[in-house]
């Protein structure tokens, strides 16, 4: 092994990222905002365009003040990103609560297709929101992962345990966290990436409960009254 090759300890801790781009996360966030915009107004607080408009403004501001390519000198504006994610997650949870309230209050008078479409929108928004959470917290976020003094890993990926499966040094990017989010929402449990920290476990638990409520409670009822 040469001095430039990463050691097993470095793989287990998580290699320093060679640089990430914000665009995949920004596109995913834009998709979540579009899903919110298409929700019926009875499932939103105020006009359905109001909250997505505020979130879009914050997203554009974030793209302006923060670089789209992360490196060791990148400006850390995680407080803006985390605030935007908290807003998106809270709005999605509110939509789910309103959907369940209307379902229990109105029963079969609610059109089945409307419930199905809303449930799908809530589920997809949750997948995107939690993928962004995982991307932002793991080892201190994308700007911190570029530094050699990055924080301890929040997730243990298979490539970190088996470094020989990749030809080049591997570090997770947004699409890896999106995959973790999809599998957690589908299987209600981690698959190839295990949560190591309490905050990662708390986020994955919240996502599983939200997904379970959406799929089992709302989805099953909507299918029963589908016309």
UniProtKB/TrEMBL annotation:
Keywords: Membrane, Transmembrane, Transmembrane helix. The lineage of its organism: unclassified sequences, metagenomes, ecological metagenomes. The keyword Transmembrane helix applies. The chain crosses the membrane at residues 49-67, 79-103, 115-135. This is Unannotated protein. The keyword Transmembrane helix applies.
């Amino acid at each position: 092994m040469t001095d430039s090759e990463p050691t097993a300890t470095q793989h287990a801790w998580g290699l320093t990222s060679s640089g990430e781009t914000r665009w995949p996360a920004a596109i995913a966030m834009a998709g979540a905002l579009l899903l919110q915009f298409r929700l019926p107004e009875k499932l939103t607080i105020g006009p359905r365009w109001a909250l997505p408009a505020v979130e879009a403004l914050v997203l554009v501001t974030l793209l302006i003040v923060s670089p789209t390519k992360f490196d060791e000198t990148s400006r850390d504006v995680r407080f803006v990103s985390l605030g935007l994610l908290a807003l998106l997650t809270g709005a999605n949870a509110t939509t789910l609560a309103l959907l369940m309230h209307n379902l229990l209050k109105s029963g079969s008078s609610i059109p089945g297709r409307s419930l199905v479409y809303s449930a799908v929108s809530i589920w997809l928004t949750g997948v995107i929101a939690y993928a962004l959470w995982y991307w932002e917290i793991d080892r201190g976020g994308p700007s911190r992962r570029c530094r050699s003094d990055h924080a301890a890993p929040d997730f243990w990926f298979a490539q970190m345990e088996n470094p020989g499966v990749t030809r080049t040094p591997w570090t997770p990017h947004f699409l890896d966290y999106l995959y973790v989010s999809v599998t957690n929402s589908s299987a209600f449990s981690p698959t190839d990436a295990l949560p190591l920290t309490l905050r990662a476990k708390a986020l994955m638990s919240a996502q599983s409960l939200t997904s379970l409520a959406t799929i089992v409670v709302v989805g099953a009822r909507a299918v029963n009254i589908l016309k």
